[in-house]
Amino acid sequence: MGLNCCTASGPRGLFVIPQTAVMQSSEGAVVNLYIPGTYTLQSPKNKTVTLVQQGEYPKTGTMRIVFQAQQPEEMTLSLRIPAWSKTTRVAVNGQEVSAVRSGSYLQINRQWGAGDRVELTMDMQAQLHFMGTNPQYLAITRGPVVLTRDARLSGADVQAVITPAEDKNGHLELTPVTVKDPDIWMAFKAQFYPESYKEEDPEPIDVELCDYASAGNATSSYPFFKVWMPQFYNPRGKQP
């Protein structure tokens, strides 16, 4: 493409992530993004405070934040609770915190000292997103990650029409899988109903999905991938 505003602005956004992941306010520390690393800031009394984030999020939904402070000090720790996490658990030194609301900041005011730890467990249940009516399309997210079908993964052909085999509560179960391709960061399998032209309803099959960042990302080829999957048109008014 050559140099243009798109190729210049993309890296700019990445460059500010370390500056915005953890910030400081007049009341204390503000955690905006859950990224493993060590973050140093100033407390309300202008003392050095270090927050260490540990975990494999978003591969898992669990993160730990460990305080390292020169001396105990009362301050407020503000944690961004993602809107997509319908049920988020937060514990301070093993004691669960109440009033955790999705799509808002959880503010914990207390005396923080060296070794204090905060553990977050976010809801990584698959979420189904539908668009259109006829045809209707489906996309799947897990936490903040968009999932994608990729020609390198097993299951029905990428072009085949499949629809999710939801359980009685309307959930699609995702199971982590290990794939041989080193260019795929994370992969999952789920059950889908395949396209069928028989009188009886088809049996569900396993289909693998990967994260969007890995989709089509191969060193030796350019595999086809798909995020928005067309759905069955069922004249009976229901899915298989």
Walkthrough of the structure:
The protein is mainly beta and 240 residues long. It folds into two domains: 23-121, Sandwich (Immunoglobulin-like), CATH 2.60.40.1180; 126-230, no CATH class. It has two helices and 19 strands. It has helices spanning 5-15, 17-20, and strands at 22-24, 28-31, 37-42, 48-55, 62-69, 73-81, 89-92, 95-96, 104-112, 117-121, 126-131, 137-142, 145-150, 162-164, 175-177, 187-194, 205-211, 225-226, 229-230. The strands form three sheets. Strands 11, 12, 13, 14, 15, 16, 17, 18 and 19 form a nine-stranded antiparallel beta sheet that branches. It has a six-stranded antiparallel beta sheet with strand order 3-4-5-10-7-8, with no helix packed on it. Strands 1-2-6-9 form a four-stranded mixed beta sheet. The chain is elongated and about 70 Å long. The model has no long low-confidence stretch (mean pLDDT 92).
Largest sheet: 9 strands, antiparallel
% residues in beta strands: 35-45%
**Class derived from helix and strand content:** mainly beta
Give the strand tally. 19
Residue stretches low in confidence (pLDDT < 50, at least 5 long) are: none
Number of domains: 2
| Helix residue percentage | under 10%
Envelope shape: elongated
- Rounded radius of gyration (Å): 22 Å
Number of H/I helices: 2
Q: How are helices and strands ordered from N to C?
A: HHEEEEEEEEEEEEEEEEEEE
Mean pLDDT: 92
Separation of termini? 45 Å
